[in-house]
Amino acid sequence: MSRATAAQDVQLALYAEAQRRGWAEGETSLPRLLAGPRAAEQVAGLQCDVVLNAITGAAGLRATLAVLDSGRTLALANKESLIVGGDIVRARARPGQIVPVDSEHSALAQALRGEDPGDVRRLLVTASGGPFRGRTRAELADVTVDQAMAHPTWDMGPVITINSATLVNKGLEVIEAHLLFDIPLDRVEVVVHPQSIVHSMVEFVDGSTMAQASPPDMRLPIALALSWPQRVPGAAASCDWATPGRWDFEPLDDHAFPAVALCRRAGAQGGTVPAVLNAANEVCVDAFRAGTLPFLGIVDTVGRVVEEHLDAPITGGDGVLSKRTPHGLTVDDVLAADGWARGRAAALVGAH
């Protein structure tokens, strides 16, 4: 629990439920409760085999580092911690210690298993296109929160669902693929696949393409991440190959959905820039959900915050170390950039 002031209430509720279930007779036990701002780090360092980090946003960074430092396997659903932590996270991870949970990166990991990295031409990250696939930029001006939340294939939380509607989520996944598999960003591409059955593909230098296909069900990549490299029998349903169907693939409309290009630029700059992008986006998503920012204003505002950060001197202007920092990036640098970006995005949203 992040809020220690609520710990006593939760503890009493757990005790009452345990009493109801026979705690006095030894038929049940109470869980250990950890509370406070560093509680997730404490949990992450406990004795276990695998830690699944599914915290939303940059708040998961310290927990990710705690898992890596403990030597446990990290099943990573919190992509933001890798994206904002960048080289800090990669330097703390031993080979194979991070196993991706996102279906796209799980697909890439499966397709790359046993392959020579030198044989990889490019990674193809698939995108459903979200609820607004096929719309022009002008047609996106007045979309509502309810429309943005109506994802056609996945049932997700509000932040990632809005990120999928803007395609910020896909841009973050491009950065994640680059960092996970050490493939240059210009060789990580996005292709729109509305059916969400092919979760991603690897194209090899001989012209062969290897794809991982399964119905859109997160139980499969989660089970695989928890048991990697083994598979869990019956984790999810497989494709019904006897039923006629179709798989469509389309190019991404970068004009209507500029988020992927923006994320690609932030990933290429490195340093604190991805942290700034991610933090500004979290603020803008909240503002859109609250009705204080239009849909197109999300990516436009994030882009403005990123540009201001890039234009600032190393420790001037925004007061935060930029990508040009002469020393190695630190967690404090990342968190300072995160805090600055949240404040700047909030100011821009307030002036909107």
What are the SSEs and their pairings?
Elements (H helix, E strand, L loop, with lengths): L6 H14 L18 H6 L5 E4 L7 H10 L2 E4 L2 H7 L1 H6 L5 E3 L2 H10 L7 E8 L17 H4 L9 H9 L1 H14 L6 E5 L5 E7 L4 E5 L5 H9 L31 H11 L3 H18 L4 H17 L19 H20 L2
Parallel strand pairs: 1-2, 2-3, 4-5
Antiparallel strand pairs: 4-6, 6-7
Structure overview:
There is one protein chain. By secondary structure, this protein is of the alpha/beta class. The chain has a domain at 270-352: RNA polymerase sigma factor, region 2, helix turn helix motif (Rna Polymerase Sigma Factor, Chain: A). It contains 14 helices and 7 strands. The protein has helices at residues 7-20, 39-44, 61-70, 79-85, 87-92, 103-112, 145-148, 158-166, 168-181, 219-227, 259-269, 273-290, 295-311, 331-350, and strands at residues 50-53, 73-76, 98-100, 120-127, 188-192, 198-204, 209-213. Strands 5-4-6-7 form a 4-stranded mixed beta sheet, with helices on one face. The chain has a 3-stranded parallel beta sheet with strand order 1-2-3, with helices on both faces. Strand 1 (50-53), helix 3 and strand 2 (73-76) form a beta-alpha-beta unit. Helix 4 (79-85) crosses helix 9 (168-181), helix 9 (168-181) runs parallel beside helix 11 and helix 12 packs parallel to helix 14 (331-350).
